[in-house]
């Protein structure tokens, strides 16, 4: 509850004037937007939930409106968090929703370094740019995915080979490749090219091209966006049956604690549901399972693409049939050590980070870091809200320290003024 109140009183009140004006202009349209969302997501999920739980459509609609008014939980999350379950609905106020976290909480903590002194050099820019992120990790000895080429503004630069900008089209390595935007999110515009031999590559949609054609297309596309050309990495042999032909990653949350250290609070293992998909993104229809951070053991798998109930929960992979629940992830404790070290060594000015980590035969490898991590996946797979769990308590602690640090100068100024006034009016 402290987080909810503080976001309204401290975070949103300090938003830029333009953002506050937009919020006020949008207020009259909220009832209409809510009505549309209720209609859409009840149409998508309502009958399946009625069949599964016996709760009628009218009751589901009433509950969606009630939760939106009381806790700003919009209809998609009514289904994502399964708040049609009466026991879960009792704890609706403990959920951390993206309107609060992505809408100001993360930025407030980041901009003020959680109430601690702000360093001269910030790491935020390195997180947003995949090339700079990789360079920062390498400088601190943190394992990240290798990169063959950076393609930007029609220029191709060899990265891991330490070569300058290449004047002509180089040769692509004769191996499977993965290409992604430098500033992309959620796996958008990422492609996989499988090497066929004789200089030929096949894209994940079936198109075949030579290495020169692939690079030429990239160079043309780089007028508008930069790209990284990387080797296609393969999941650890012990979880290959869960990966379904796509690199699986673990979303791991780390947060600054009361001692100023960084600890893992939650984790979710992600798997591709369809072999034709090149990423394991949860909101793109993938499967995710909770990870017991003390053991690395998986819970049941589930989907959660914007409220689509899918086929609920399952103990085996829906396509491969591989066992999910009860599986132990390889190299788990090495992964925990890696992300905690990475947060403290290279990104200590970030209060909270959501890491995407691949488990390879060679060990854990950090793929990306997220400065404003989505908590939907964690709260969905765990089946409980985070507000009063360890992550919620740490966010509240850092938020409280930030607010106190901001109010301290004002309190000091008032105390000084009161002291001065007392001296002037004091009788002899």
TrEMBL record:
Residues 126-384 form the Alpha-L-glutamate ligase-related protein ATP-grasp domain. The keyword Oxidoreductase does not apply. Residues 408-428 are annotated as: Disordered. Residues 418-428 have a biased composition (Polar residues). Keywords: Membrane, Transmembrane, Transmembrane helix. The chain crosses the membrane at residues 21-44. This is Alpha-L-glutamate ligase-related protein ATP-grasp domain-containing protein.
């Amino acid at each position: 509850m402290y987080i909810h109140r503080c976001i309204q009183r401290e975070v949103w009140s300090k938003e830029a004037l333009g953002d506050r004006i937009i919020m006020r202009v949008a207020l009259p349209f909220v009832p209409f937007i809510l009505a549309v969302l209720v209609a859409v997501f009840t149409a998508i999920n309502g009958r399946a939930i009625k069949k599964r739980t016996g709760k009628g459509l009218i009751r589901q609609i009433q509950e969606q409106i009630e939760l939106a008014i009381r806790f700003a939980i919009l209809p998609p999350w009514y289904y994502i968090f399964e708040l049609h379950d009466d026991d879960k609905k009792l704890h609706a106020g403990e959920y951390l929703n993206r309107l609060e976290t992505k809408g100001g909480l993360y930025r407030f903590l980041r901009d003020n370094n959680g109430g601690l002194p702000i360093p001269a050099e910030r790491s935020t820019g390195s997180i947003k740019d995949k090339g700079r992120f990789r360079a920062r990790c390498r400088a601190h000895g943190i394992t990240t995915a290798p990169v063959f080429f950076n393609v930007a503004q029609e220029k191709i630069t060899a990265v891991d080979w330490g070569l300058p900008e290449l004047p002509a089209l180089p040769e692509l390595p004769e191996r499977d490749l993965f290409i992604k935007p430098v500033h992309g999110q959620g796996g958008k515009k990422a492609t996989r090219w499988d090497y066929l031999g004789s200089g030929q590559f096949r894209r994940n949609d079936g198109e075949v091209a030579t290495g020169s054609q692939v690079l030429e297309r990239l160079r043309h596309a780089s007028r508008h966006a930069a790209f990284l050309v990387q080797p296609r990495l393969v999941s650890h042999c012990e979880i290959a049956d869960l990966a379904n032909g796509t690199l699986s990653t673990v979303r791991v949350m780390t947060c600054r604690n009361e001692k100023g250290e960084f600890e893992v609070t939650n984790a979710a293992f992600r798997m591709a549901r369809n072999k034709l998909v090149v990423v394991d993104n949860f909101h793109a229809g993938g499967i995710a399972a909770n990870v017991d951070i003390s053991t690395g053991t998986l819970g049941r798998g589930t989907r959660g693409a914007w409220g689509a109930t899918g086929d609920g929960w399952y103990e085996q992979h829906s396509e491969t049939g591989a066992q999910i629940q009860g599986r132990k992830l390889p190299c788990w404790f090495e992964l925990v050590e890696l992300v905690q070290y990475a947060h403290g060594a290279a990104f200590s000015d970030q209060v909270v980070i959501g890491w995407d980590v691949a488990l390879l035969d060679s060990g854990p490898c950090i793929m990306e870091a997220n400065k404003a991590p989505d908590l939907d996946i964690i709260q969905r797979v765990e089946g409980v809200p985070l507000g009063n769990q360890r992550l919620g308590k740490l966010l509240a602690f850092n938020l409280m320290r930030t607010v106190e640090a901001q109010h301290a100068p004002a309190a000091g100024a008032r105390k000084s003024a009161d002291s001065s006034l007392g001296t002037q009016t004091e009788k002899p």
